[in-house]
Amino acid sequence: MSIKEKLIACLIENTGISLNEAMLENVSARFDEILGLIGFNDNSEEVVEEGKVINVAKNGIDDNLIKYLEELSRLKLSEEEEKEAKADLTKILGYIDMLNEIDTTDVEPMSHPFSYTNNFREDVCVESTERELILKNAPQQKDGCFKVPTTVE
Asked: Most buried by CB count within 10 Å: which residue of 49, 118, 120, 149?
C-alpha cells in the first residue's frame, strides 16, 4: 500500500466520510500535490540503524525534503549537516512508528495528564470596601469619584 493510499484510508477512517469516485480522484490529486511539495518519492532507499531497517522513502525523508526544510527555516546546511539532519529525522520518524505500534485500545483520550477539574474557588459575595475610605487616598476627587487629568479633547 502506497503512502497516498494509507493517507486516504486514514482520512476516510477518521472522518467517517465515504468518498465517491470523483471525490476520491480529487483527494488523490491533492495528496499528490502535498507529497510533491515536501519532496516525497517512492525510492526504496533504506537506512540500517541499531539493527532495525528503516525505509526512508516510507517516512518521506529524502534530499528534497531536507532542502525544503532548509528553505523554510532559512538555514544553510553543509552536506555533512544535511546527512545528519536526514538521519535525525529518520530516527524521529522511526520512534514515532514505534509509538504507533503501542496498543492504546483501553486508554482514554485525555487533554491533560492530571485529573484536575475546575480548581477555582467558590464565588462568594462580600461587602465592598467603603467608598470614603478608598477616596481618602486619592489626590483629587469629585462627586465621589477619582478625578484624573483629561487625556482626550
From this structure: 49
Burial profile 121-146: b = 16 or more Cβ within 10 angstroms, e = fewer: eeeeeeeeeeeeeeeeeeeeeeeeee
CA distance 64 to 72: 12
Euclidean distance between CA atoms 18 and 24, whole angstroms = 9
- Walk along the chain (153 residues) in steps of 10 and give the mean pLDDT of each run: 74 78 83 71 50 53 83 89 86 80 83 74 85 88 89 83
For residues 19 and 26, give the distance between their C-alpha atoms in angstroms, rounded to a whole number. Answer: 10
Side-chain-facing half-sphere of 91: CA atoms under 13 Å: 9
Nearest residue to 50 (alpha-carbon basis) of 82, 96, 103, 95? 95
Contact 44, 57 (CB under 8 A): yes
Helix residue ranges, H only, the chain: 3-15, 21-37, 56-59, 63-73, 79-100, 131-135
* Residue keyed to cell 511539495: 37
Q: Pull the grid cell for residue 129.
A: 470596601
